Amino acid sequence: MRVAADREVCIGSGNCVFTANDVFDQDDDEGLVVLLTAEVGPRDADAVRDAVAHCPSGALRIIED
Question: What is the Cα–Cα distance from 52 to 63, expressed in whole angstroms?
Fold first, then answer.
């Protein structure tokens, strides 16, 4: 599974970081999403799915292999 983030759509709420901080971070300038890794392992898969489902701006999406 892979995850993608659209920084043009991101509003910087930080929900993704709280939900899956091994995969997501926020930049220091605008607080927008930063992917730490696009490849999601089994250990982080549920957290990433939750982050995508709860992203208020819809900036995150899952790309199934």
Answer: 11
Look at residue 64 and tell me whether its pLDDT is greater than 90: no
**Residue 33 backbone phi and psi in degrees, to 5:** -60, 140
pLDDT digits (tens, 9 = 90+) for 27-37: 999 999 999 99
The domains found in the chain, sorted by start residue, are 2-63 (3.30.70.20)
Distance, in Å, from the CA atom of 10 to the CA atom of 7, rounded to the nearest integer, reads 5
Question: What whole-number distance in Å separates Cα of residue 29 and Cα of residue 22?
Answer: 20
